[in-house]
Amino acid sequence: MLGIIGVGHLAAALLAGLHRAGFAPGEVLLSPRGRAAEMAVRYGHALARDNADLVARCDLVLLAVRPAAAAGAVAGLPWRAGQVLVSACAGVPLAALDAGPAQRMRIMPLTAAEVGASPTTCFPDLPEARQLLEALGPVIPLTSEAEFEIATVSAAIYGWAQDLIARSTEWAAAQGLDPQVARRLNALTFAAAGALIDGKPQPMAQMLRELVTPGGITERGFQVLAAHGVGPGWEAACDAVLDKLKGR
């Protein structure tokens, strides 16, 4: 059975994804705080009495609390050999999670798990958690915790991408395009760009050179973005997020 400690916004998205993937209500047990009562009514999951009861009853436990609360949420619980603690708490190293003899792993799912589209990073890649991760979208195993920390920056980029889609949609609507058409077009445009890069083996720089016609509209846009320092600003934002994840 899967138990979830910390039923907030992220866990709600993951529960929607699990429901979409066909997880039965009886396969999931929720800790009784946050949005647990709401999710229990929506999907038919049971509520544990407390976190200790949840750990005693579940073989796989997903931790989705705020990072500052992660260590305290798992300490002193009745962990046992054969269990797996799966932490979705950004910036919290495995060493900070005292789960006794249980195995520990880190994942970073996105709220796109709700529609089965989260590229979910993980370390280490434990087979006991594969069914859970594959229900959320593509799984991206990493080889070290240091690599996982770098990859977690993508969770922030996910939010920035949504902001760019929203800004592009608002701009197009202000120019006269139907807002719903603009929303769908911009969302699918970002998805198309990612799908092409993910699906082709060519170097990304080569693909971009082939895309940017001299004197064309893409080149003109790049010129304006460069004049506003968008590239260095984006890289600085990534650096700042990684520093935060490392506690700097």
TrEMBL record:
<dbReference type="GO" id="GO:0004735">
    <property type="term" value="F:pyrroline-5-carboxylate reductase activity"/>
</dbReference>
<dbReference type="Pfam" id="PF14748">
    <property type="entry name" value="P5CR_dimer"/>
</dbReference>
<dbReference type="InterPro" id="IPR029036">
    <property type="entry name" value="P5CR_dimer"/>
</dbReference>
<dbReference type="InterPro" id="IPR028939">
    <property type="entry name" value="P5C_Rdtase_cat_N"/>
</dbReference>
<feature type="domain" description="Pyrroline-5-carboxylate reductase catalytic N-terminal">
    <location>
        <begin position="2"/>
        <end position="91"/>
    </location>
</feature>
<protein>
    <recommendedName>
        <fullName>Pyrroline-5-carboxylate reductase</fullName>
    </recommendedName>
</protein>
<dbReference type="InterPro" id="IPR008927">
    <property type="entry name" value="6-PGluconate_DH-like_C_sf"/>
</dbReference>
<dbReference type="Pfam" id="PF03807">
    <property type="entry name" value="F420_oxidored"/>
</dbReference>
<comment type="similarity">
    <text>Belongs to the pyrroline-5-carboxylate reductase family.</text>
</comment>
<dbReference type="InterPro" id="IPR036291">
    <property type="entry name" value="NAD(P)-bd_dom_sf"/>
</dbReference>
<dbReference type="GO" id="GO:0055129">
    <property type="term" value="P:L-proline biosynthetic process"/>
</dbReference>
<feature type="domain" description="Pyrroline-5-carboxylate reductase dimerisation">
    <location>
        <begin position="161"/>
        <end position="244"/>
    </location>
</feature>
<keyword id="KW-0560">Oxidoreductase</keyword>
